[in-house]
Fold this protein.
Amino acid sequence: MSTVDYLELLKLAAPETIVVAAAVAVLFVDLVIMRDEPMRHRLLIGGAVTGLGCLVALLWLAKVPVHAAVLGGVLVVDPLTQWVKGIVLVLTLCTAALSLHAKFTEHVGEYFTLVLLATCGMMFLVSSDDLLTIFVSLELTSLCLYILTAFSKRDRSSAEAGLKYFLFGGMAAAFTLYGLSLVYGLAGTTNLRAAAAALAGQGLTPLLAVALIMVVIGFGFKVAAVPFHLWAPDAYQGAPTPAAALIASGSKVASFFVLAKVLMLGFAGVEGSGAWRQFSAGWAPLLATLAVVSMLLGNLAALAQRRVKRLLAYSAIAHAGYLLLGLLALANSDGRPEALAALVYYLATYGLTTVGAFGVLGVLERVNGSDRLEDFIGLSRRAPGLALCLVVFLLSLAGIPPLAGFFGKFYVFTAVVGAEPARLGLLWLVALAIALSAVSLYYYLQVLKRAYVVAPVAGADRIVLTWEDRLAVGGLALAVVLLGVFPSLLLSPLGAAIQVAGY
Amino acid sequence: METLCFYLFAALAVVCGFLVVANPFSRNPVASAMFLVLTIAALAGLFVLLHAFFLAAVQILVYAGAVMVLFLFVIMLLDLKEEERRSWRKFGLVGGGVAVALIALLMYAALRQSPLGAAGEPRVEGSTAALGELLFRQYLLPFELVGVLLLVGMVGVIWLSKRAVP
Amino acid sequence: MMETLDQLFVLLKRWVVGEFPAAWRLWLSPLIDAGAIIGVFAGLFAVTTLLERKGLGRLQNRMGPNRVGPFGVLQPLADGLKMLTKEDIVPRAADRVVHFLAPIAMVTPILLAYAVLPFGRNLVAVDFDAGLLFFFAVGAGTELAVFMAGWSSRNKYSLLGAMRGIAQMISYEVPLVLSAVAVVLVAGSLSLPSIVDSQAGYHWGWLARWHVFTPWGLAGFILFLIAATAESNRSPFDLPEGESEIIAGHLIEYSGFKYALFFLGEYLGLFAVSALGITLFLGGWQAPVPFLAWVPSYLWFGAKLLGCIALFIWLRGTMPRLRTDQLMNFAWKFMLPLVLVNLVVAALWHGTAAWGFFGAGATRWLLGGAVLWLTYSALSHALFTAPGRGPRTYRYAD
């Protein structure tokens, strides 16, 4: 039995530890000190403690670059995971900023605690190469998100959404666990890299195929890929807006990253060494199928939506399709660093954009009390700044240059095309994705049309924005523009990090 | 002897597990819960056959002793009535049958083509101390994470049972 | 000679088993163990009912049973005959299967629990590595039995009784297990015989090294006793059966032999948990003073067991019954924090075992005792001054 240097371990897991400590601190401060204060103060203080925790963790990530894989891959800290964890933390920070005007709950302490603990789960999800830890942190994240979805007690649809999310999630967790335990049974180890080495010689046996399918089903649920997407529209619709933002951004980033890792590392040897170029077996066809259906259904169903949250949910499903396409590029070992960098860039920009869009939605919901398309009418006159930010977010989601969403799509599609120069098997997939991106422009423009073109009803007054809204939404819009104009701001450090981490 | 015990416990687990979800004699939630207790006990028996005494004892103590009793307690408090007999729809019946058949076929093919490896030596022989060593060294982080997970559960339940201020 | 007497039962069993062909021995040995346990403790049950009735009688200034046989010693026999010949009534609305299974589910797990208890030197049916855990695991089965009895009777009083019973048993199981965990922490084993071994020897040649003589052990033992009283539904924690409010709780629809089985189960549970307390804190079968070490170990164990039973009878005769809210507050707001602090004190005690300076033992004792005492007084203060917890006010009955 090897001894463990607990101090070293604490140092490596410090960001996560800080986040958990902040979670407990929020709970303590809100329930003990701030108990009888007015709601506004409680929200401000809770948000401040949450933000402080995230900032300290971010600072630690930036200032203490320790790199190690300890305990046989249970905790892997390398530049890439540091970056992804940083992205998750930034997204949480934005979510916390959007929560400062929450009217959906009186339980401020519990709310921020759950947000922070979900973040902690995501961070462990990102930085572990161990099946056991991955599963436990997946459950931690999911459990927090189920509760957050149902957090609005006065709203029936919130409870319904929470229950739906929970039931689907429980089912998916069962699939994941079954698949992971089959992997463990076949490989005899819970470490991803070791499992890959053990599986390499076996070829794609039926049992391994079952394991693979089960794992993909489980993660497919997490990332809301068709046909495991049924929870997403209801959860997005029913959940309080900041919670929906967290589900759509941070959770998505972490889930996609871990899915990429499981497929890339854990199932690397599934087909044996010779079958790489043909994509004839293994997880590539499975993923390609999921990607196609997700893109098709997400984009087409979004056309019919009258509520913006639902629209964003279907757009998220479509984006899951693009991202699954990006995962396909990882199947090939040459060009993998570029593909991985493109994927993480896409994830980061998509997360920022979504949080921003939900931020705008949150403001409107606060003023109008709902998120119907009609509520966007005359937004450009009621709040010109907000409307401009909305333009930035939605056009970025649609993939219009020079915004970040365009470059995300561009790099991912380039990586997919470049992944298999010989047979051009994936070219038609990329063509489909580009075509569907054009379709998606229609429903994003539906929203913008109402904001800018349709004449407002008389008497609609100006929307007063608070400084937190300005800061969060404006900052996010700025980030989306900046990352679009200078993609290398994020891409080149990511590339360097991937080089160092050695994927 | 051991093989006999294995088949006994395995059969008990499968039969009781079936009776939990689809009991042809009673649609009473209490009956389901009690069969779940039996399933758990049978699983504990399987753990004993694998020399995992600690796990078996914990399984009984936590699941049969605490979790299931709380289940029953909740059923009792909510005064759940017998579930109505499900009316069988043609689609559900056919779809379910096809799905079960396909999964059975898949598992059969899978198990025929790739037999699971022979049972290896247990890495942690029944001893509680060795298990503790493993939990607090190799698997310290998942172990702590489960602690956080329980905290989430606790916060969630307390939040859920607090009265909403109208 | 004394050695032989001490190991009398072990040798006896070995001899009996040796007389049989080898193929049978594997089966015979556990059978003999089980038979002996059932025989001895069913007998003890009979004796205890008499003792309890006599003792309660004396505490309440009356004679107790004195009609059947000399001084009433044959009373258990008469009680047993009465129980066996009574009509067995099952309510028409009852769930017959569960109603029938409940008494069995009550007695069987408790009998299983005896398998891991060491009643004397080498006198244990199964020396099992996770014995303590096994004990608690099978003990959890009785909660199910209470539920089954209360639910299957289709009687609102039984249901209320079962709900009270389960809530109480689950709540008090936490301090019960945690006070035992302190012993596991110091003894470093979950096996009950090795926990007894860890208490062997004497300080300065006369003070036994029992855990009860340490600060955490003393506190742990008291907490354990309280939790054990609650676990076995005995007064002052006999709310599930509270005769004055819910008649007899989950037992209301039972009569005849099934009722007797429940009764047997409750007493067997009491013996088992007392035996566990003795094993954990009172040195098990070890003699309290070295010059009496020649007395056979099982006699010491029996004496301690009878002492515990007497204590429980005394408690029952002395204490009034609690209210449900008092019961729950006591479990969660007093016992749980105290038992957690006790765990920390036990860890400190274990950590400072290497202190060698003069007076180290006394220092450790005083430190641990002070921590526990402070916690105790703070918690009890909080318990008694919490809002709404003052002396009861009567709105209508002044």
Summary: The CA atoms of residues 110 and 140 of chain B lie 34 Å apart. The mean pLDDT of chain B is 81. The longest helix of chain B spans residues 53-78. Chain B touches chain C through 24 residues (CB under 8 Å).
